[in-house]
Amino acid sequence: MTDFHGIFPYLVSPVEPLTGKIKEDVLRQLVSDLIAKGVHGLSPLGSTGEFAYLTQAQREEIVRIVVDETAGRVPVVPGVSAFSTEEAIEQAQRYEVLGVDGIVLMLQAYFALPPTAIVRYFRMVASAFHRPIVIYTNPGLLGVDITPAMINTLSEVPNIQYVKDASPNTGRLLTTMNLVEGRIKVFSASAHIPLVVLQMGGVGWMSGPACIFPEESVYLYELARSGDWNTAWDVQRRMWRANEVFQKYSLAACIKAGLQLQGYDVGPALLPQEPLPDQAIHEIRHVIDYITGIHKGSRKAWTA
Q: Which CATH architecture has domain 6-303?
């Protein structure tokens, strides 16, 4: 099976506001540019991809375009999210036919679910899908938590091989790592400091901000892989300014605004989300200029 590691940008979903049509040329250009800048994989239909505001037809079209444009150069690992087990299985199987390399599997909850029901959901989807699975837990957004104990239980499923935990408690990641003893690998979420997760033994960063900062994100990962922690921390401290701005507003809207500023006509955040205020655009422009300006000037400037 494919080994997932490194920087996986969570792709935005470029949609025409009036027609709902996917902006295929824009999405293809973004995919091509991100691969050229060294990212290790791509993940459409995550939180940054505004999956909750897309129709299933739009989701499938996005996956089709990304898989086709990627052409096997890096793994494509889209998000699968549903309230019902049957719907999640249907999504996963459709994406498998489209040629994805794996999925990021989420569970949305309306009624409270006991741990046994949550574990059963992931087991059943995994049994119907034949490629690697990244478990994603984000209790603040999805309404359900996949605890370290549940992840340990699910580590017995052969194709459940990774986890991305976006809960605010970084210590949970270490608890999970201790429990699974290497059976499941950990990706950082933007809720955590990526370099901390990499130092703990994480294998990469699945990240909306990497759409805007692909080269900088890859550089951070390369520094961690080489063990140059002093330089890596200088880079991480500077890059963290973007997280500080994005956390003030809506992440998906911020990433779309940042890409618009970089020349990608990805369109606004999908309704019913509201447009960002002018102050947010100003802050996003400033942090992009700050981070990319340092990087493009000289990598040595990151540690100046």
A: Alpha-Beta Barrel (3.20)
